């Protein structure tokens, strides 16, 4: 993950990443210019933008969607993910499942925010976390406890093992 300024979201995510085993940690790299870095990389999956001024961020996301034809999905109350149309968790999950010779009906997906909707709806069972926004809960098949509890493990033990 490239970032220009260590915003609150970057700091929170980097701290969370430190709790993961080294082989699972995302790599955070501060760059002088995101624009220059974007020109130099081989591929960009998405841009994640965060701002404390939510109305300004909402207006920017709307402008990007209307003028550039990109999709904007909210991954937190103060973060919007901007990507090419179709670059979604649901689409990528479906591609991977198909490549494995499996069926999406056999997939259980867990999520808590708008950027998880495509994945929750593509999976055979979409599970919203208790801390999810209400619209995500309404579109999931099941709602369980919050993501900082043992609710995922409990769901797996009760329903899949």
TrEMBL record:
<dbReference type="GO" id="GO:0000287">
    <property type="term" value="F:magnesium ion binding"/>
</dbReference>
<protein>
    <submittedName>
        <fullName>Stress response protein yhaX</fullName>
    </submittedName>
</protein>
<dbReference type="GO" id="GO:0016791">
    <property type="term" value="F:phosphatase activity"/>
</dbReference>
<dbReference type="InterPro" id="IPR023214">
    <property type="entry name" value="HAD_sf"/>
</dbReference>
<keyword id="KW-0479">Metal-binding</keyword>
<dbReference type="Pfam" id="PF08282">
    <property type="entry name" value="Hydrolase_3"/>
</dbReference>
<dbReference type="InterPro" id="IPR036412">
    <property type="entry name" value="HAD-like_sf"/>
</dbReference>
<dbReference type="GO" id="GO:0005829">
    <property type="term" value="C:cytosol"/>
</dbReference>
């Amino acid at each position: 993950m490239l970032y220009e300024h260590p915003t609150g979201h970057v700091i929170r995510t980097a701290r969370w990443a430190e709790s993961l085993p080294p082989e699972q940690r995302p790599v955070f790299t501060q760059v002088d210019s995101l624009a220059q870095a974007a020109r130099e990389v081989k591929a960009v999956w998405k841009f994640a933008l965060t701002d404390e001024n939510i109305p300004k961020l909402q207006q920017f996301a709307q402008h990007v969607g209307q003028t550039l034809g990109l999709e904007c999905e909210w991954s937190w109350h103060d973060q919007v993910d901007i990507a090419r149309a179709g670059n979604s968790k649901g689409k990528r999950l479906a591609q991977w499942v198909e490549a494995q010779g499996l069926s999406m009906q056999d997939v259980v997906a867990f999520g808590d925010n708008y950027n998880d909707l495509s994945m929750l709806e593509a999976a055979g069972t979409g599970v919203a976390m208790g801390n999810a926004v209400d619209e995500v809960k309404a579109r999931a098949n099941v709602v369980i406890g919050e993501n900082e509890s043992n609710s995922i493990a409990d769901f797996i033990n009760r329903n899949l093992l």
